[in-house]
Fold this protein.
Amino acid sequence: EVHLVESGGGLVQPGGSLRLSCAASGFTFSSYSMNWVRQAPGKGLEWISYISSSSSNIYYADSVKGRFTISRDNAKNSLYLQMNSLRADDTAVYYCAREIVLKYWGQGTLVTVSS
Amino acid sequence: EIVLTQSPATLSLSPGERATLSCRASQSVSTYLAWYQQKPGQAPRLLIYDASNSATGIPARFSGSGSGTDFTLTISSLEPEDFAVYYCQQRSNWPLTFGGGTKVEIK
């Protein structure tokens, strides 16, 4: 069974940094591309980043380009999102999801940016 | 960026009724369109991919149609568990984009 578990969320001050992790199990992680998608409280879904299976292709939404960095460690079956220069409008639940047809999602981790 | 516009924003229906949800793209996405269901406090669930293909385990009452710029998600007969928010998403071009969602609520 495919399982994705996000961690690393929490409360951070504006301008701060946070690193999210997504632990994958139940499938051959190194064979699949991965994404981060976020959802601000009471709002819709926003795709923010993609990484191909070998990390050769990486894409970002304009809203996070230059501030967020996606990466993966296939040996550890893990996906990461390094978030720098955080702003209040980055407050959201952050989901990891497999492939660009987002068939499998984690349960999400809440990031709150506030002073 | 491809903008997806979903309508209506809210659909008020009774159990057993048919629900028809629309998603319109600002430019052609061919058939690279998916539909997701999201309930409060839960992650989204894939219902339909590539416009008309049902994801694994999705009940037959859910169906998708369309191509190019106009797409429809149909729920043939609403069950109590179908009252939720539904999102469309395109994978034709980067960035991936979602529609704003349609909330299907109990009338």
